[in-house]
Write a structure and sequence with these properties.
heterodimer; B: 582 residues; six-stranded mixed β-sheet; 15 helices
């Protein structure tokens, strides 16, 4: 097992290194990061020279990559275009995104597994068909459509109807919120509701469909038939013999999706004006901010690798038949 | 069982994480107006090139003072709360400006506003050098000052204080480089170099608290968000009372030491707007009261109209769209070719397809320097207003024919040299936005009518501009009511008898005469003289046709649940008069 993990880690590091080189070159050759400054005809030429020196634009590309790479090895992600350290910004925006994503993720897992099981057990019936319809519907609807619909046609009319904010549509907390933590809880809940629902609707569908099919597949396996013929109660068969086995492949998918979700909540963040990682990355990319773009890449890539690895390990733990070499 | 407990624990932790980790805010009691902040920043010294942004300026408009405010008509208005009097005079061939600081003016920590605030701003911004070329003034760490702009400051000879409140001038210190400059003075005398008058002097001396900056540093000393409420002192109606970078939210409450007319609203809140397309919905939902998008769109206007209580203001802005010609291309270097293009490109059709959908009053921009709503504007380019008409197309073809190009009826194209020569073709670049794509396609279609082939290429402006790898490029200049910057856009600098295009002169126009006129205007004593000089320059530029201006973009602003908001199209932005909002 340890050998397997180490081998996977090593190959992941190589992939990561190649990715950083690729992104580095893409950003470096995507334009002049000081363009906006140069477009201002009143910017002193000396200022441009100073900034070029500060951003190492006067150095060879290979030197710049090596400088960044060695910095990362020492835990330093460098400075952004405004001379502000990137690492604290990464953690700050990650905190915002995590606050949006974690709750949605947990609820989506619970909903997806529950609906998947229900649909499989009621296969072919009205419940199964309804769940299947709903999952395919939400799978097809882009997340920004869901977000905007909830915002424009649910939240705003509801707030207007009640004359005060029931469902907040912007930010993670009201900027004029007062009081202690407990007094602010209703406000926090009002701000978390819509982004959480939007994210759940965006991610639960594929998991539900997958869960349904794995349950159906497992239900027809020999060991399940045997368990049933032994007279074990249906509940016990479901929980011990079907669900446990059916959860294994779903775990992998869910673990991988969480990494993607952290990096990809950008649309939900945009619709609901959360100042999270997605927006930070977009602004960085638009400004050709090399260190922000690379930090984001590093973060999401490490997450994907980590969750991939965790999924593999979980696979082994959940299914004793799986052995790693 | 253990697994269930673990899963349960993770679920509870996830539920709690969403709420526990959220930072807290505390706004003042009373009336509050919320402004959408559609951009972020990481530090607070807006005078540095690293931090300079329109968004930060919106937050600091009510904090950091300046002797003059630029109003919605782009006119400088003396802020008598800061400076009771400001006089410019010619003293023996040198411009001397004398500011009389309001005796009541104090920073929010109680330290009086003095000449030292002006002296420090000059030291940081002038870019003055010692005889050996080293910087005369440096930041506390010995590094050069990073400044967003030094126009005007680089023409100043000295800044000296006088008439201190206490009666005696403070000696100053060597560390502060203000020995003998009467830093505690309440009158400031600014002397410009001989022959280097600066008509736009009212735009100088946006101020920050020198007594803080001298300690923490200019370049990065004011970037620490945890110290912002202490370091970003105010000499305006509001003080910065809360900073939350994670939520891009900033709160300003009334300045208890403010000596002027009190602000009409108790608390100003600047809060995050991740995307301008969500702005009108945010107003409708009551998430904020004031929203000024970076670029206004037709959909924003129609959305605003459909929402009761939302007020819209769409006025001509200072960003103007144009087609840039590269003089390095031998065909475009010919004036007749540029004239033919100007006669063929239907600017009204371009407007109808783009900005006209936002503001139907938009007309072709007939001036290189002045915007149509700016004092000094003259329609010098009116000859091209009906470009694309049959008469103009005929004239354009005649111009090309007289330049030696040969029209081949078989392919309806002009050819270089002879009918068998290469078709007259230009590479047109645009950045790929829907607006630019529409503009490029119209240019392409219009020029095809006079036998010119245009290939459209897409690339970021930052890739194309500054290189000579283009024949024509469409982009927007963020113009300014301050004229002196135009020398860098259209001018060149004489070096060893050769006129080398200035850094923002991407098309490489090298007209020494027009540069001389603009350079002279930049050293005018009065704005009237400067305007006269630039008006003369504009007439010459229309003879040169270095670019073809299309139109002025529109500046939009929307608000709800607040009165007193006035859309200001200049860099001052929407919060320029926030103290009047109620």
């Amino acid at each position: 097992m340890l050998k397997y993990v180490l081998r996977r880690l090593l190959s992941s590091l190589i992939v990561l290194w190649v990715a950083t080189v690729g992104v580095f070159l893409m950003v470096v050759y995507s334009g002049d990061p000081l363009f906006a400054l140069k477009m201002n005809p009143t910017t002193p030429p000396k200022t441009i020279l100073i900034r070029e020196h500060q951003l190492f634009l006067d150095r060879p590309v290979t030197w710049r990559y090596w400088h960044w790479f060695t910095g990362v090895l020492h835990g330093n992600l460098g400075l952004d275009m405004t001379n502000s350290p990137v690492k604290p910004q990464l953690f700050m925006h990650m905190g915002v995104t995590l606050r949006m994503v974690v709750l949605a993720f947990v609820l989506a897992v619970v909903i997806a597994v529950s609906l998947g099981v229900l649909a499989a057990l009621k296969r072919g019936g009205i419940i199964d068909r309804s769940i299947t319809f709903a999952t395919f519907f939400f799978l097809a609807v882009p997340v920004f459509v869901t977000g905007l619909f909830l915002k424009l046609y649910i939240a705003i009319p509801l707030d207007k109807f009640f004359g005060h904010e029931v469902l907040a549509t912007s930010g993670e907390i009201s900027p004029v919120a007062t009081g202690n933590f407990w007094q602010r809880i209703p406000g926090l809940a009002a701000h978390m509701t819509l982004p959480t629902i939007t994210l759940i609707l965006a991610i639960f569908s594929s998991w539900t469909i997958y869960q349904r099919s794995t349950i159906l597949e497992t239900m027809n396996m020999d060991h399940v038939m045997l368990a049933r013929s032994k007279g074990i109660s249906p509940r016990r068969v479901l929980l011990r013999h079907i669900l446990r086995n059916a959860l294994i492949p779903v775990t992998t998918v869910i673990a991988l999706d969480f990494a993607g979700l952290l990096g990809g909540a950008v649309i939900t963040e945009t619709v609901y004006s959360w100042n999270g990682l997605g927006r930070w990355f977009l602004q960085g990319a638009n400004n050709q901010d090399l260190n922000i773009t690379l930090a984001y890449l590093l973060f999401t890539a490490v997450l994907v690798i980590l969750f991939n690895l965790l999924a593999d390990i979980a696979y082994g733990l959940l299914d004793p038949r799986i052995r790693y070499r | 069982m253990l697994k269930h407990k673990i899963i349960g624990g993770i679920s509870v932790a996830a539920l709690m994480l969403g709420t526990l980790a959220v930072p807290s805010f505390s706004s003042g009691a009373g009336t509050t107006k919320i402004v959408a902040l559609d951009g972020t920043f990481t530090g607070f010294n807006n005078f540095t090139s690293a931090q300079n942004s329109f968004y930060l300026a919106q937050v600091e408009n009510q904090l950091w003072p300046s002797p003059y405010i630029m109003n919605q008509a782009a006119k400088f208005v003396l802020d008598t709360d800061i400076v009771t009097k400001a006089v410019s005079a010619d003293v023996k061939g040198q411009q001397v400006v004398t500011y009389t600081i309001n005796p009541q003016a104090v920073w929010s920590d109680g330290v009086p506003l003095t000449a030292d605030d002006f002296i420090y701003m000059y030291q940081a911004s002038s870019g003055a050098t010692n005889p050996d070329g080293s910087p005369k003034y440096t930041d506390i760490d010995g590094n050069q000052y990073d400044v967003a702009g030094n126009a005007g400051y680089n023409q100043i000879q000295s800044v000296v204080g006088s008439k201190p409140a206490s009666g005696a001038c403070a000696p100053g210190t060597a560390a502060n480089r203000n020995v003998g400059l009467c830093p505690n003075g309440k009158t400031v005398t600014v002397t410009f170099m001989k022959g280097q008058s600066y008509a736009e002097w009212p735009g100088l001396f946006g101020l920050l608290p020198a007594h803080v900056a001298r300690v923490v540093g200019w370049n990065t000393g004011m970037d620490d968000p945890s110290r912002a409420t202490a370091d970003i002192l105010s000499a305006g109606p509001y003080v910065l009372s809360s900073v939350d970078m994670a939520n891009n939210t900033y709160i300003e409450t009334k300045n208890p030491r403010w000596w002027g007319t009190p602000a009409k609203t108790d608390t100003l809140v600047f809060t995050n707007l991740a995307d301008d397309t969500q702005g009108i919905a945010g107003l409708a939902a009551g998430d904020f009261n004031v929203f000024q998008p970076t670029t206004v769109s037709a959909s924003m206007i129609s959305q605003a109209k459909s929402q009761s209580g939302v007020t819209s203001s769409v006025i001509p802005g200072y960003v103007f769209e144009h087609l840039d010609f590269n003089f390095k291309n031998p065909n475009l270097a010919k004036l007749k070719v540029r004239e033919a293009i100007a006669l063929a490109v239907n600017r009204k059709a371009i407007i109808a397809a783009t900005v006209g959908q936002v503001n139907t009053a938009t007309k072709p921009l007939d001036n290189y320097i002045f915007m149509s709503n700016q004092a000094g504007y003259k329609a010098d380019g009116a000859a091209y207003d009906n470009a694309g008409s049959t008469a103009d197309l005929t004239k354009a073809k005649a111009l090309l024919a007289s330049s030696g190009y040969v029209f081949d009826k078989s392919d309806s194209k002009f050819h270089v040299g002879s009918a068998s020569g290469a078709p007259l073709t230009f590479q047109l670049w645009e950045k790929g936005s829907s607006v630019r794509a529409a503009e490029a396609q119209i240019v392409q279609a219009d020029l095809a009518k006079i036998g010119i082939t245009v290939d459209i290429n897409v690339a970021s402006n930052s890739v194309i501009l500054g290189t000579d790898n283009f024949d024509m490029v469409i982009f927007g200049w963020a113009g300014s009511p301050l004229l002196s910057g135009y020398l860098n856009i259209y001018g060149c600098t004489m070096t060893a008898g050769v006129c080398t295009p200035n850094s923002s002169n991407y098309g490489n126009l090298a007209d020494a005469a027009v540069s001389k006129v603009m350079a002279k205007a930049n050293t005018s004593l009065t704005i009237a003289d400067e305007v006269k000089g630039y008006q003369q320059a504009d007439q010459t530029l229309w003879k040169d046709l270095p670019t073809l201006p299309f139109y002025q973009s529109s500046q939009g602003a929307f608000w709800s649940g607040v009165s007193g908001v006035v859309n200001n199209p200049t860099q001052a932005g929407i919060t320029w008069n926030a103290q009047e909002w109620q």
